[in-house]
Q: What sequence folds into this?
């Protein structure tokens, strides 16, 4: 008897442009899986989170389970019906769930996974899986070899030396700095990141959440 398919709890699904990292501007079908192991609700909108270096920040990602459940087959079918060639699993934390089940049905889709790196990443076909890690407190070093690009959230008190130290010995060379701009008073973080790139690390890149500038999901 075949095992019963897992029902993934869904916060939302949408077809939009990727706004962050290497694939900025690429159409993707996004599946936001509900639940997070590093965030803490501090209101109806904001969540308090803690970065890999212990720095606390707020985000406005709503990862409550409000869109029902979907099996891996249903998730992949939805991406195909949208006309997508890329499927992005985001959260919350996707690795809380058996994402390998979804990967097994992605023969005609490029699978993208966005993770905090705080749960062990399973072995997935590297030829069609792209993993982005925005490391949070509790990052597991065992995940180093699975990461394709790093995304560091940068606030006004983030020490760039902490990022440099974290990256020592890491395989992935794609490094993005993403200013935290969830609140109006955080707008200066973008210039802070630009100065880091211009003055100290021109080999790194800016991730500026293009979808928010365009008013997209």
A:
């Amino acid at each position: 008897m075949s095992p019963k398919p897992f029902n993934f709890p869904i916060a939302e699904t949408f077809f939009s442009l990727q706004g962050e990292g290497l694939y900025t501007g690429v159409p993707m079908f996004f599946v936001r899986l509900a639940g997070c192991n590093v965030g803490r609700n501090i209101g109806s909108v904001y969540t308090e989170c803690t970065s890999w270096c212990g720095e606390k920040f707020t985000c406005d990602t709503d990862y409550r389970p409000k869109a029902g459940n979907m099996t891996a087959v249903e998730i992949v079918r939805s991406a195909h019906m949208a006309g997508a060639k890329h499927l992005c699993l985001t959260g919350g934390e996707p690795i809380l769930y058996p994402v390998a089940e979804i990967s097994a049905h992605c023969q005609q889709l490029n699978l993208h996974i966005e993770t905090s790196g705080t749960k062990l990443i399973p072995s997935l076909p590297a030829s069609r899986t792209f993993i982005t890690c925005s490391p949070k407190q509790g990052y597991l070093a065992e995940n180093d070899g699975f990461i394709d690009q790093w995304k560091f959230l940068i606030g006004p008190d983030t020490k760039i030396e902490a990022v440099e130290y974290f990256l020592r010995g890491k395989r992935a060379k794609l490094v993005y700095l993403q200013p935290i701009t969830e609140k109006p008073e955080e707008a200066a973080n973008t210039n802070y990141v630009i100065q880091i790139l211009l003055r100290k690390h021109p080999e790194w890149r800016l991730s500026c959440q293009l979808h928010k500038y365009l008013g997209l999901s």
Remarks:
- The chain has one domain: 8-214.
